[in-house]
Amino acid sequence: MARYLFPGGNTALGFFSFYDHILPEEETRRMIILKGGPGVGKSTFMRRIGAALAERGHAVEYLICSSDPHSLDGVVARKAGFAIIDGTAPHIVDPRLPGAADSLVNLGAFLDETTLSKRKDTIMALRREISACFARAYRYLAAALLLRDDEAAIGRATADEGKLMRMLSPWMQELKGEEEVGAPGKSRSMFASAITPEGYLHHLETFGARRLWRITGDWGGESNRLLSLLRHTALLHGQDVETLHSPLNPRRVEHLYLPAMDLLITTENRYHALPEEAERTLNLEEARGRAPTAAEQEAMRFNEEQFDRLLHSACLSLARAKALHDELEAEYIPCMDFDGVEHCYEQVEALLPGA
């Protein structure tokens, strides 16, 4: 089963990238970095590479663009040490091991620059408006994050800390295991969900994990704290961890995946939930030391309503940016030599790992 992740996100901190975590240097046998402007065919190029890898029997990760969930930012065959990624803005990537493991492929070389130069003013105007749309979306998300922070503060004020830690203790004990601790585990960071022109999207179902643990209750920062403790425990006891961050605030942990246990530990709320039955469930509401006061309940209702409005407005701004980007691509596509791209694809396909 192919997995779908977001290597970058539209967040309250602006565009945030985990591109450095796509494939560690020590595991990289071949990294292809695609360059070129909009409309040159990078996403189609990578999708074809993904299909070719799957045909050869490789487990494939598709890295989805958070600003256009129908486009790709990369394709990875991790066990084969292979990746092909979009290295253009806003996630600019340059070769780290040029020649030794990394190759640069510039699809922009097949553009008719003479014709494009006559469209410079239109292209510049579109880019300015696209940037303004993204900036507006990020301001809406920054305001939404403040509401989440207030919700987290209410959660901390009403929590029974001792009870919360007692509820978490069996989870931590199982992650410690019974074997003697050797080297600490390795961590990889990505997004399993994103704030996109089509709303809040997630691809948790593509993990296909055999085991599921679930944290429920929408306290904002508290689930992050619990997941951070679980992550630290697993790493300290030699387990590799895939850390899946919040698309609103990438400094917060939203889900964990432990490959050795084939275990997904997820935060469930009204924006993301899995239908599968969980082995373990920790309900934050059961860890309250007291009920929220009337004033706190009113604040929580206000925060929820305004958060939804701000998130909706941010997504509308991203949708406007996407529509403008489509116009920008339309400026480039007629100026592209796709026969040259096809020849380039054949050269890259020849570099793919075997079965």
Describe the structure in your own words.
The structure is a single chain. The protein has helices at residues 42-55, 113-117, 120-158, 161-176, 221-236, 294-332, 338-349; strands at residues 3-5, 8-11, 14-17, 30-35, 61-65, 68-77, 82-86, 102-106, 187-190, 193-196, 199-202, 211-216, 241-245, 253-258, 263-268, 280-283. By secondary structure, the chain is of the alpha/beta class. The longest helix has 39 residues, at 120-158. The chain is flat and about 70 Å long. It starts with a strand and ends in a 6-residue tail after the last helix. The mean pLDDT is 93.
Layout of helices and strands:
Blueprint: E1 3-5, E2 8-11, E3 14-17, E4 30-35, H1 42-55, E5 61-65, E6 68-77, E7 82-86, E8 102-106, H2 113-117, H3 120-158, H4 161-176, E9 187-190, E10 193-196, E11 199-202, E12 211-216, H5 221-236, E13 241-245, E14 253-258, E15 263-268, E16 280-283, H6 294-332, H7 338-349
Parallel strand pairs: 1-5, 4-7, 4-8, 9-13, 12-15, 12-16
Antiparallel strand pairs: 2-3, 5-6, 6-7, 10-11, 13-14, 14-15
Helix pairs in contact: 3-6, 4-5
